[in-house]
Amino acid sequence: MEVVSQLLQPEPSEGLMSTPLRIAILHGAGYVGGELIRLLLTHPYCTLTAVTSRTFAGQPLWRAHPTLRGQTDLTFVEEAALTLSELDAVLIAAEHGQGARTVQRLLENGYQGLIIDLSADFRFRDAARYPEWFGFDHPAPELLGRFVYGLPEVYAPYAPGTRLLANPGCFATGLALALWPLRHPLRERTVAVTALTGASGSGTRPKATTHFPERDGNVRAYKVLTHQHLPEVQQVVGPYLHIAFVPVSGPWTRGIWGTVHVTLPAGITTRDVSEWYEAAYGEAPFVRLWPDQLPELRYAVHTPFCDLGWVVRHHHLVVGFALDNLLKGAASQAIQNLNLLLGLPQTAGLLPTPAAVDA
Amino acid sequence: MEVVSQLLQPEPSEGLMSTPLRIAILHGAGYVGGELIRLLLTHPYCTLTAVTSRTFAGQPLWRAHPTLRGQTDLTFVEEAALTLSELDAVLIAAEHGQGARTVQRLLENGYQGLIIDLSADFRFRDAARYPEWFGFDHPAPELLGRFVYGLPEVYAPYAPGTRLLANPGCFATGLALALWPLRHPLRERTVAVTALTGASGSGTRPKATTHFPERDGNVRAYKVLTHQHLPEVQQVVGPYLHIAFVPVSGPWTRGIWGTVHVTLPAGITTRDVSEWYEAAYGEAPFVRLWPDQLPELRYAVHTPFCDLGWVVRHHHLVVGFALDNLLKGAASQAIQNLNLLLGLPQTAGLLPTPAAVDA
Amino acid sequence: MEVVSQLLQPEPSEGLMSTPLRIAILHGAGYVGGELIRLLLTHPYCTLTAVTSRTFAGQPLWRAHPTLRGQTDLTFVEEAALTLSELDAVLIAAEHGQGARTVQRLLENGYQGLIIDLSADFRFRDAARYPEWFGFDHPAPELLGRFVYGLPEVYAPYAPGTRLLANPGCFATGLALALWPLRHPLRERTVAVTALTGASGSGTRPKATTHFPERDGNVRAYKVLTHQHLPEVQQVVGPYLHIAFVPVSGPWTRGIWGTVHVTLPAGITTRDVSEWYEAAYGEAPFVRLWPDQLPELRYAVHTPFCDLGWVVRHHHLVVGFALDNLLKGAASQAIQNLNLLLGLPQTAGLLPTPAAVDA
Amino acid sequence: MEVVSQLLQPEPSEGLMSTPLRIAILHGAGYVGGELIRLLLTHPYCTLTAVTSRTFAGQPLWRAHPTLRGQTDLTFVEEAALTLSELDAVLIAAEHGQGARTVQRLLENGYQGLIIDLSADFRFRDAARYPEWFGFDHPAPELLGRFVYGLPEVYAPYAPGTRLLANPGCFATGLALALWPLRHPLRERTVAVTALTGASGSGTRPKATTHFPERDGNVRAYKVLTHQHLPEVQQVVGPYLHIAFVPVSGPWTRGIWGTVHVTLPAGITTRDVSEWYEAAYGEAPFVRLWPDQLPELRYAVHTPFCDLGWVVRHHHLVVGFALDNLLKGAASQAIQNLNLLLGLPQTAGLLPTPAAVDA
């Protein structure tokens, strides 16, 4: 064996990589922001050029995300310090309500690039949904029609020229992917969903339901049959299915795991169900199918996948879904959307690339 | 204030307490055995006189249950060392299959007292269930008809003279209590159950599914739609409900938490559902009702209660149940049954007694 | 076997139990308050007559402590609603600073019974300690001299007539019990302590360090070498040992576990160390000794014990300690002190009583 | 903004990347194997060409590592199926004892490339250590002298031509890095270490100490003052320090966190200590220094870093260390060593590369 000490840093191949795309993350001090930063630091075609945070402006990224210390020298900046004309895309990881105001500011300031908003603020076409489900009037209803709902497995490829995209909610992603293949074959049926989420879904702000002594070893349902991701899912699967959704807090940090129960019409077999899911997701790189079993949460956590599995017995179908709420439920789905909007390989920066040479 | 230094140990009142009942625990080195010991050590009418274990015979109880060190001087004995004629009751905390053989030995040796078996071995009247659901032929089918199924909220008071009682399974207890009030009003409907259990339900023997790195932060379904507690529940609620049951492993040690979904007939309101549950359990000391909400797991753990709650929206009913798998799902329910069979107050040793004098 | 259906509730034996002692818990809505309530509800000589809480006044105890639902019908009251003359003892489970003001109010209102204060406010004889270690001037320095420091294994029996007692801190209890037997043999040596505590030690108020995503799977030191329990321990073991103390947050809810390292003088063996601990605690019902090993946390949790163990190798001694921060570190130690001050058996309500009759 | 839909996969730049290095992982079905696979799948200069496992031969990698499903199409092979002449390096993730036999086989079969052994089998120069500390005679003592001990921050750069490297143990890595800068300034002193590790350190095989109900919420010391990593650390820091080491199991899956206590000579300040650590690790990309505080475990987990921090008060120094036992304690350190032996940038595949173009 010869030691290849002459090897150097790989240089970008001519042309393509001479201008990596320039990305900024707005409101990047939360958990989703941290994942977006991590993913963009190793993205092969993108450069993270700025991250904003009012609280941490002027401080290194690792003050909010100590894990990143030693991995980047970037510091947080104020939003006003961005040079918008130099950005190809911005990802907004704000809380609900803040997303819309941030988009407004960007557009008012003449920003021309892509916007991927990870808040709930542009997920609905109908402004009336906001007071009903979120308790506030939408600050920018005139923008709702300009946003695309970014569930790639259902809506991609996006129309050429799409600039504004609303990234789906975490529960909504799992639920919509689990239900989408069922909407026609099980039309008019009731699907009964119980789904549990980890504490990182609640954000970085401490509250009673994420207080360790209250969460540890505990299981707690909330917003039973009234969760705000319900209309989001209903918007995807249309009026075909009646969805009863029980969201639940579980004693872990990352990941969503749920079951869907539905009665099958006579004559439907496991094979039929498998065909429905294969037809819907056979080519989708971020949906993994587990026929005849329900997926385990652990295998989806820290990955960009949504795992789907199903079991049929007599006339009953159970579908299971599992995903990382911060990744396929937020950050990696945003990167997947970014890749799609930029014309990059959908998996860039999210999955290993086959080695260039592998005889 | 006068310091009451003259106070002594309370002496038993005349007559009643001069002969506390003598209880033995068989196969008492597991988790359920530990809880039975703990409960009997403070039971006001019972004395724990012996605990058997082949593995630990000759060693103090605290070798298997270090928590108990300093709380009792008992040592484990071999089953053969018991003086059966001196025992008022035995509680058998054996694994499935071992329970039946232990009962056989006791009866063959002329034991005349009560037997409460916590294994699955006498929960079914029909011996055919054992090969189908447990994978072995029942070793003592002739005894099946002599056992009473001990779900007190449904079957108590037990017939006078009842000596042999099969304590229900942990999942079965929660599920049967949740479904029992629905069996008539929702006759012929499908109830869709997803229920999660902690790792102590798997017993003390390490295995892959309880290996910490595999269980921590994980959720995993198993025996989907085919769990052995299903026929047990079906035996309770009869043919009226079609039960689809997904049992799930959760990342905690103690407690079962589940949801039941069912479509309601037109016109049924929350008030109706509340009446069904009130009628069934209004007087039951170990069932706590939480109308218009689902119970939290944490509040049931380390208690002898099964918590039941429900939410109705449109035509959909969700019922939630929560219990400690080692207590209401095993040990405290066995003590409750013991109390009932002995004619003691049902809550003796399980709930605080109102103070004797409280002006 | 004859079913003893004629058995009734045990009646108190004549004289002694005709007047159970009347106890109130002040500021009883926190975690320690919950444990005090639970312990007093089954105390054989005491009746819990009132629990105060400003937040929960007028609501049943189970609003703050849902686990207690079905176990007591008491409701929280305002402190002003107490009839002080009817109380034999009050236990104060207030936050630091509030304890002193509560004691002041009680004494000003002519309260004549026992007071056990679980806050830090009366643990030091020297008022100067408060600004230095707690950041505030003591509100009632004149009372400091009247309080006894209630570490029973060191200071009991208390002087006859003792009415005011300061219950030790949780870390301080474990550390003081571990160090007390070493103070003379290892005089002038440095003892190096690293001790970890669960999240319930931080109280019920959510904060960043108890936010589930931050605590789960994490270990974090705080107040390194400067924790406020340090002077408390130093006050017990005197000037004999130099204590270096690193307190640490661990990812669990209940329990303190720590190690003490110290270099031994030549010639000291395990046997010597065992003798020191046996001499100090051989008769103490709530200290369990584990020679030649360090105790496991799990066995102390949910018990009123402090476990101590030790290992000697060459010239090095490691002592381990484990206790439940809410019990021996707070509530059960308060009951132990209550028993001692009232002249009751020290273990009443905390350990199983040997059965009255056990032939 | 112009959508760059013409972007293609990056092609390797001429010459350098046309022949990625070919790497195999032996015994790759365990936790460390899973991390090695994950890291090599995205390594910019290396191609993972084979992973062996007797148990899983013929099955896809994701059977042992379900997380990897959808990320690689490799299947496990038998060791005998390897074409050794085509491999540039092998990484051995075997259990102790198996590592040596695997190395023997490779060398007997004429393998000429690099070997990085992650077992304990070649960490000591002195064969006598094996019966003493591991309980077995070394199967290949003649090879001990040919291996380099691969703690890069202490021993790199390795001698040109180094082919055989023993990767350090997980506890040993943290402890040696924490102690190395102290060995001269604190010569002859005793350092008292208490360090806790997660359950993944015990490997994939279930056992009593990793049984979830026993590990959850528990802390347990083991091999107190006698752990087999102790001589490994002593070999690094030489005879200068006396190490007392208490290894502890903690209730989490990944990560090691520990404290070192040592008495300082008069006159030593925080600044002095900081200078010692800066001098030792100022340039080390995988050691992060946290002066005046102890590191938090959480920030090191899922990273290739070892975090070191320290606090001085009076004459006492506490040093804290934190690392991911599967990464800097095993897999990422192996890749770091691989990079060093291959003449690659030390951080290749482990840290984000600065973007090629970032105006």
From TrEMBL, chains A, B, C, D:
<dbReference type="InterPro" id="IPR050085">
    <property type="entry name" value="AGPR"/>
</dbReference>
<dbReference type="InterPro" id="IPR058924">
    <property type="entry name" value="AGPR_dimerisation_dom"/>
</dbReference>
<dbReference type="GO" id="GO:0003942">
    <property type="term" value="F:N-acetyl-gamma-glutamyl-phosphate reductase activity"/>
</dbReference>
<feature type="domain" description="Semialdehyde dehydrogenase NAD-binding">
    <location>
        <begin position="22"/>
        <end position="162"/>
    </location>
</feature>
<dbReference type="GO" id="GO:0051287">
    <property type="term" value="F:NAD binding"/>
</dbReference>
<keyword id="KW-0028">Amino-acid biosynthesis</keyword>
<dbReference type="Pfam" id="PF22698">
    <property type="entry name" value="Semialdhyde_dhC_1"/>
</dbReference>
<dbReference type="GO" id="GO:0070401">
    <property type="term" value="F:NADP+ binding"/>
</dbReference>
<keyword id="KW-0055">Arginine biosynthesis</keyword>
<comment type="similarity">
    <text>Belongs to the NAGSA dehydrogenase family. Type 1 subfamily.</text>
</comment>
<keyword id="KW-0521">NADP</keyword>
<dbReference type="InterPro" id="IPR036291">
    <property type="entry name" value="NAD(P)-bd_dom_sf"/>
</dbReference>
<dbReference type="GO" id="GO:0005737">
    <property type="term" value="C:cytoplasm"/>
</dbReference>
<dbReference type="GO" id="GO:0006526">
    <property type="term" value="P:L-arginine biosynthetic process"/>
</dbReference>
<dbReference type="InterPro" id="IPR000706">
    <property type="entry name" value="AGPR_type-1"/>
</dbReference>
<keyword id="KW-0560">Oxidoreductase</keyword>
<dbReference type="InterPro" id="IPR000534">
    <property type="entry name" value="Semialdehyde_DH_NAD-bd"/>
</dbReference>
<dbReference type="Pfam" id="PF01118">
    <property type="entry name" value="Semialdhyde_dh"/>
</dbReference>
<feature type="active site">
    <location>
        <position position="170"/>
    </location>
</feature>
<comment type="function">
    <text>Catalyzes the NADPH-dependent reduction of N-acetyl-5-glutamyl phosphate to yield N-acetyl-L-glutamate 5-semialdehyde.</text>
</comment>
<keyword id="KW-0963">Cytoplasm</keyword>
<dbReference type="InterPro" id="IPR023013">
    <property type="entry name" value="AGPR_AS"/>
</dbReference>
<comment type="pathway">
    <text>Amino-acid biosynthesis; L-arginine biosynthesis; N(2)-acetyl-L-ornithine from L-glutamate: step 3/4.</text>
</comment>
<protein>
    <recommendedName>
        <fullName>N-acetyl-gamma-glutamyl-phosphate reductase</fullName>
        <ecNumber>1.2.1.38</ecNumber>
    </recommendedName>
</protein>
